[in-house]
């Protein structure tokens, strides 16, 4: 299992912005496909955004397109999710996940237990 640690979650008002981070240890993130998922109370974990291991493709869930941006910092060995124009329905625990030897895949579909996961960071969008 790859070691991942999310941070940056917070309480933010609707319309606000937040950036969550995913730091890796024991491996370099540019050698893995990375995905951001979120899970709201009582709901299934869903894919939000991903970047493939070739670093040439990103994808987003329809619900966040135009508002969220995924990026990778190879120097800091971290992946970020910049979230703008936040909505109440963006509330949830945000997890990053990583897979090595992904052969160009982008991790946005159904989550898998054999992927490596962080512990999550809470994002709450509320007045």
Tell me what the structure shows.
The protein has 127 residues and is mainly β. It has no helices and 11 strands. Strands 2, 4, 5, 6, 9, 10 and 11 form a 7-stranded mixed β-sheet that branches. The chain has a 4-stranded antiparallel β-sheet with strand order 1-3-8-7, with no helix packed on it. The chain is globular and about 40 Å long. The protein starts with a strand and ends with a strand. The mean pLDDT is 95.
Question: Features of this protein?
Answer:
mainly beta, 4-stranded antiparallel beta sheet, globular, 127 residues
Mean pLDDT, to the nearest integer, reads: 95
Radius of gyration: 13 Å
Oligomer: single chain
**Count of DSSP helices?**
0
Q: In sequence order, what are the helices and strands, one letter per element?
A: EEEEEEEEEEE
Shape: globular
- Quantity of strands, as a count: 11
Largest sheet: 7 strands, mixed
Blueprint of the fold:
Elements (H helix, E strand, L loop, with lengths): L2 E5 L3 E2 L5 E8 L6 E8 L6 E6 L6 E3 L7 E6 L4 E6 L8 E9 L15 E2 L3 E5 L2
Parallel strand pairs: 2-11
Antiparallel strand pairs: 1-3, 3-8, 4-5, 4-9, 5-6, 7-8, 9-10, 9-11
Task: Give the structure's gist in a few sentences.
With 127 residues, the chain is mainly β.
């Amino acid at each position: 299992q790859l070691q991942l640690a999310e941070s940056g979650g917070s309480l933010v008002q609707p319309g606000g912005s937040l950036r969550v981070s995913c730091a890796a240890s024991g491996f370099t993130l540019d050698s893995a496909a990375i995905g951001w998922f979120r899970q709201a109370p009582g709901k299934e974990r869903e894919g939000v955004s991903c970047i493939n291991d070739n670093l040439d493709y990103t994808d987003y869930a329809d619900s966040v397109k135009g508002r969220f941006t995924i990026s990778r910092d190879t120097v800091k060995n971290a992946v970020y999710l910049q979230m703008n124009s936040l909505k109440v329905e963006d509330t949830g625990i945000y997890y990053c996940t990583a897979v090595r030897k992904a052969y160009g895949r982008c991790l946005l579909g159904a989550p898998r237990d054999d992927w490596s996961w962080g512990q999550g960071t809470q994002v709450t969008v509320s007045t």
